[in-house]
Amino acid sequence: MVPRAPHLRRFQFRLLAFVALLLAVANALSAATARKNVLFIIADDLNNLLGCYGDPVARTPNIDRLAARGVRFDRAYCTYPLCGPSRNSMLTGLYPNSTGIVANSQIFRQTIPNQLSLSQAFRQAGYFAGRIGKLYHYNVPNSIGTDGHDDPASWELELNPAGVDRLEEHPKIKTLTPGQFGGTLSWYASPKGDAEHTDGKIAADAEWVLERCARQKDRPFFLAVGFFRPHTPYVAPEKPYYGLYPKSAMRVVQGVKEDQADLPAAALMSYKNEQNQLTDELRREALQAYYASISFMDAQVGRVMAALDRLGLAESTIIVFTSDHGYHTGEHGLWQKQSLFENSARVPLLIVAPGVGKPGTVAPTPVSHLDLYPTLTALAGVKAPDNLQGQNLAPILADVTVPGRGWALTQVMRGGGGGGGKKKAAGGRFAGYSFRTERWRYTEWGEGEQGRELYDYTTDPQELTNLATLPAHAATVADLSRQLRAAVKTTFPASGTSPAVKEGLWAPLLAAP
C-alpha cells in the first residue's frame, strides 16, 4: 500500500476540521432559533400563602423549588378577582372592560369572537396546544370532569379527569350552606390518596402528555395544566396534608371591627352572610383545610416538574406558575375573593425562562396577569395580536431591577349599595378600580363617589389604615387618582364596542379631558 502524501493528509485534516466547524455552527444556530415549549401551570383560588413568598406556615417545597429556578414576581396582580373574568382576561390579553366579561359562566367568544387566545396564538404558529383540567371558568365542583366554560379553538387536546372529590365525597363535605360547596366555605379531610383525587389525576395526565411531547421533538408544545385546588370545597387527602397543619396552630385575624371602621361600604361588599356562622374554631378548621389543599396541590406540581426534568424537556421549556386571583382567609373580616384588597388582588407568579435572567431572583415592580400573553409570545417568537393590553416582561426577566410599567390595575363590579350617586351605572351597579404601585394601593369606588382607599406599604403592608380622607395625603390622592383614571382609559377597546362600554360604566371618565 502506497502511503499518502503528507500534503494530502493535511488537506483531509483541514477539510474534516472545517466540516466539524460548520456542523457546530449549524447546531448552535439551530439551538438559538429552536422554538421554546411552554408549560403553563395555574392553581385555583390560590393566594400568596406559599413558602417562597415568605409565609411561615405553608409547606410548599415544590413550588418553592420552582421559584428558585426562575424569577419570582413579588407584586403580581389579577385584573379581576373572580375566576371567569380573570381567566378570560389573562388568556385573551385584554382587560375585562375589553372582553366584556365581568361575571362567571361566560366565554369570550360571546363578546369578542375573533380574539386569538394565548394558546390559540401558539397553535396557529404550529405548536401542539393541550389543556388538562381548568383553564377557563368551571363551576367547581359540579363541572369537574367536563369542559366547563372552555374555548375549543384554544386547544388540540382537552383532558377532563374527575376524582373521588367530585364523584364520591360530596355527602361527606362540611359546608356552611347546606347543599352548596363551590361558592361557600366547605372542606373535607379525605381518607383517599393523591392518585384518586382530581388534581392527582391531572398530574398523571400531564406526565402522559409530556411523554408524548418528548417523543415528538420536531414540534414544540404549549401545555396548560389547571389544578382545582385549593378552590372550595377544600378537599385534600387527610394524610399527610392535614397533619402538616395542626388546627390549634392556625391563626385567627384579630381587630376586625377596628380595621373596618375607616372603610367605605363598597370595600366590604364581598362579605357573605354565611360567614356570620364562623366561630374561631371554625375559622381555624377552614384555614387548616385551605393550607392542606395548597400542600396537596403543591405535591402535584412536583410530579409535573419531575416529569419535565426526567424527560429532558426543562432546558427547552418556559414554565409559568400562577393562580387566577388571590383569596381572603379572614383579613378585614373577609373570606374568599372579589375584594380590591391585596389579599384578593395579588397572585403568585413564577416564570422560568431558560437562558434568560438569573435563577432565584425576585422582581419587585408591580406586574399584571395581562403581561403573560405578550411575554410568552415574545420569548417563543410567536406572533401576537396587535391589540394586547399588557407589557412584555422579558426585560424584567433579564434584569429584575427594570421597573417596567410600574403599576397594575385591578377592577371589580358592585351590584349596588354604598349610598347611591349620580355616577352609578344603570341598575345601581358601579365599578371599583384599584391602582397598585410599589409603595401605594389607591382605590376608587364609583369614581370616588362610593368611597376611596389609600394604603402606604412602607408602613402598613396589611392595609389596616385607610389614608384617603386624611388632609396630609390629599396631594397623594389627587396624583394617584389622575394616574388611575389614565390607566382605566387604556382598559377599553379603541372601538368602544365592548359590552362594558355599552353599559355606560365609567362613561363620564372616558369623556373627561
Description:
There is one protein chain. The chain is of the alpha/beta class. The protein folds into two domains: 36-398, Alkaline Phosphatase, subunit A; 408-511, 2-Layer Sandwich (Arylsulfatase, C-terminal domain), CATH 3.30.1120. Helices cover 32% and strands 17% of the residues. The chain is built from 16 helices and 20 strands. The chain has an eight-stranded mixed beta sheet, sandwiched between helices. A four-stranded antiparallel beta sheet has the order 17-18-19-20, with helices on one face. β11 (328-329) and β12 (335-336) form a beta hairpin. α2 packs across α10 (280-310). It is globular and about 65 Å long. The relative contact order is 0.16. The model is unreliable at 17-33, 417-423 and 500-513 (pLDDT under 50).
Topology:
Elements: H1 6-33, E1 37-43, H2 61-69, E2 71-73, E3 76-77, H3 83-92, H4 96-99, H5 118-124, E4 128-133, E5 157-159, H6 164-167, E6 174-175, E7 186-190, H7 198-215, E8 221-226, E9 234-237, H8 238-241, H9 256-260, H10 280-310, E10 317-323, E11 328-329, E12 335-336, H11 342-345, E13 346-347, E14 349-352, E15 361-363, E16 367-368, H12 372-380, H13 394-398, E17 408-414, E18 430-436, E19 440-445, E20 451-456, H14 474-489, H15 499-502, H16 507-511
Parallel strand pairs: 1-8, 1-10, 2-15, 3-16, 4-5, 4-8, 7-9
Antiparallel strand pairs: 2-14, 3-13, 6-7, 10-14, 11-12, 17-18, 18-19, 19-20
Helix pairs in contact: 2-10, 7-10
Poorly predicted sequence stretches spanning 5 or more consecutive residues: 17-33, 417-423, 500-513
Q: What is the CA–CA distance across the termini?
A: 94 Å
Largest pleated sheet = 8 strands, mixed
CATH H level of the largest domain: which superfamily?
Alkaline Phosphatase, subunit A
**Nearest-angstrom radius of gyration?**
25 Å
Compute the number of structural domains.
2
